[in-house]
Amino acid sequence: MYSTILNLHSYWAFLVLAVLTIATINSIVKFVGKKEYGPKDFRLALFTIIVSHIQLLIGIILYVVSPRLSLFSELGMGGVMKDATSRLYLVEHPVINIIALVFITMGYSKHKAKLSSNAKFKTISIFYTIGLILLLSRIPWHMWLGI
């Protein structure tokens, strides 16, 4: 079960990164170009938040069924924090990615309250970019890409 959820979490992450990158670039380009906010922009922002939240749910399930979780009882919090790999998987990756999802969610929620297209694109650009940077900073690249 663990390996299935791990694979799903890894492959779904490609979708999240692709959609988030497209939504971020779209909002930046249209903000700079002073374009009108349309239904396609709304759907892209909505789809981004949906796939991101699904990834969070998959990640929470993965975290709970992970054999690494037992390291907290075996090593204690101090032991986990001393080991870079354990710290990444058990603390940094989940916490930073939840914070990233909070930024993405805030951006989506705040953009809906804006009245002008430029303000909508600016809000999405800022919050989605922060979320994307945070996500990229805590992906275990060495495991994900087989480096």
Could you explain how this protein is built, in words?
With 147 residues, this protein is mostly helical. It starts with a helix and ends with a helix. It contains 6 helices and no strands. The model has no long low-confidence stretch (mean pLDDT 91).
Number of helices: 6
Compute the average pLDDT.
91
Strand segment tally:
0
Largest sheet: none
Helix and strand content put the structural class at mainly alpha
- Total number of domains: 1
Strand proportion: under 5%
Q: Could you state the oligomeric state of the chains shown?
A: single chain
The poorly predicted ranges are none
Categorize the overall geometry.
Answer: elongated
Order of helices and strands: HHHHHH
Radius of gyration: 17 Å
Helix content: over 70%
User: How far apart are the termini?
Assistant: 25 Å
Task: Offer a few descriptive terms.
147 residues; membrane; mainly alpha
Please write out the topology.
Layout: H1 2-32, H2 39-65, H3 71-82, H4 84-113, H5 117-137, H6 141-144
Keywords: Membrane, Transmembrane, Transmembrane helix
Transmembrane segments: 12-32, 44-66, 86-109, 121-141
Protein name: 50S ribosomal protein L27
